Amino acid sequence: xxxxxxxxxxxxxxxVKLSPRTKVVAYWAVLYGAYVNWAMTALAAxxxxxxxxxxxxxAHGAAPWKEVVVTLGLLSVGLATVTAAVLILAGFxxxxx
Length: 97
Prior knowledge:
By secondary structure, the protein is an all-alpha fold. It has helices spanning 2-12, 20-47, 64-93.
């Protein structure tokens, strides 16, 4: 889904009206969210964690430190994705100057 999101966003990126600095923040937040989501999901599967990703984990879960690493990684992805979405939606609402 992140790949489709990146393709769709790339096709309308020129319509996002933000200040240069805010546009850079949105750009990197989107890329961070997409790629770290993939990496954390793969890491969760490799470590067998199941706290935030029960589909990728085992029935009993993993060591607590592994669960914490994956949980923090996935929470950072969520924060980056929400930040990017808010900035991009604000950029769509602005008029060209």
